[in-house]
């Protein structure tokens, strides 16, 4: 038996009920749901995505507490929240382009 207090809302109806997130932000959360901890809040039925309203706000609370089920584990040797070096990774043959070095015709 399903919980009758759970309300499932379509993406297009979300902003009729809630100010945040806007539709574009919501679609970003859906697209990245497997890596951002929101996968449990979205239910897929054929091509339609329904948002479990209660679970969505539980996910927000978990994000605020720093607990995110299904979130990827930190990379070995990398501290969480460590700054990312700019430029190509060591050993990467990618060459950084200089400003103004556009291909000319």
Key terms:
105 residues, alpha+beta, extended
What does this structure look like?
This protein is α+β, with helices and mostly antiparallel strands and 105 residues long. It has a domain at 8-65. Helix content is 31%, strand content 11%. The chain has four helices and three strands; from the N terminus they run E-H-H-H-E-E-H. The protein has helices at residues 11-17, 23-31, 33-36, 53-65; strands spanning 8-10, 42-45, 48-52. It has a three-stranded antiparallel β-sheet. The longest helix has 13 residues, at 53-65. The protein is extended and about 65 Å long. It starts with 7 loop residues before the first strand and ends in a 40-residue tail after the last helix.
Unreliable spans: none
Percent range of helical residues: 25-40%
Strand order of the largest sheet: 1-3-2
Shape: extended
Mind telling me the C-alpha Rg? 20 Å
Count of helical stretches: 4
Mean pLDDT, to the nearest integer, reads 78
Distance between the termini: 68 Å
Strand pairing plus helix content: what structural class?
alpha+beta
Approximately what portion of the residues adopt beta-strand conformation? 5-15%
Biggest pleated sheet: 3 strands, antiparallel
Order of helices and strands: EHHHEEH
**Based on DSSP secondary structure assignment, what is the total number of beta strands?**
3
Task: Give a quick rundown of the structure.
This protein has four helices and three strands, in the order E-H-H-H-E-E-H. With 105 residues, it is of the alpha+beta class. A hairpin with a 2-residue loop joins strand 2 and strand 3 (48-52).
């Amino acid at each position: 038996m399903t919980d009758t207090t759970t309300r499932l809302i379509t993406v297009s109806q979300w902003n009729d009920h809630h100010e945040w997130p806007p539709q574009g932000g919501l679609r970003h959360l859906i697209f990245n749901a497997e890596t951002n901890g929101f996968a449990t809040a979205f239910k897929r039925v054929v091509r339609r995505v329904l948002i479990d309203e209660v679970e969505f706000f539980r996910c927000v609370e978990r994000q605020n507490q720093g607990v995110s089920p299904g979130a990827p584990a930190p990379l070995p040797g990398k501290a969480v929240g460590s700054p990312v070096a700019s430029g190509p990774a060591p050993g990467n043959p990618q060459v950084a382009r200089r400003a103004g070095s556009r291909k000319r015709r």
